[in-house]
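Reading a protein record of the kind used here takes only a little practice. Think of the row as the fold of the chain written in a discrete alphabet. A record is reproduced here so that you can trace the correspondence yourselves:
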Amino acid sequence: MTPFMRTIRAGIVGVGKIGRAQIAAVRSMAFADVAAIAMRDPERAAAMASELKISTHYRDYRDLVADPDVDVVHVCTPNSSHFEICKAAIVAGKAVLCEKPLTISAKESEELLALAISRNVKTAVNFVYRHYAAIKALRDIISRGALGDIYTVHGEYLQDWLLYDSDYDWRVESSVGGASRAMADIGSHWCDLACFLTGER
């Protein structure tokens, strides 16, 4: 880190599986740290902050967004809450890293995009697979024309998630995950990779 670079302070909203992964990722960078977390359950928030050695915790994401010690807001909550949290952060002038999908409707996403542009706020959606070395190598092969012209892209996303009848996840609830369910939540990774690899929309 250069002497002119200050630490970027992240606030994590939602500290489930993805939130914990975000905390680990932030802490792996020499120029960033976690300033605060927000969780709806105040007892869990306090316990999680103590366990993860994070000095500040909130029950309400609005308090985290208003915290002057938070530079960037990581949105790691169920899909249906992404819009309101991202909007509050953008209005507050905080950079945003949102888990995919950005929102549960194109209308909401378009509103956030227009708002971020009008306020010159940095935003991103966390499509992590494009950063894998194999994906970067494949993108280079395609961009050099080594595979010739690309006319169609076909792919699958295979996993054992929800294999058993006893498995449950909020993503199967349209009221929480959104009407597009698996297509938006997991299929969005596939769509992002298709665009990223080919350079086409």
About this structure: The chain has a mean pLDDT of 92. The chain has two domains: 8-125, 129-198. The longest strand covers residues 32-38.
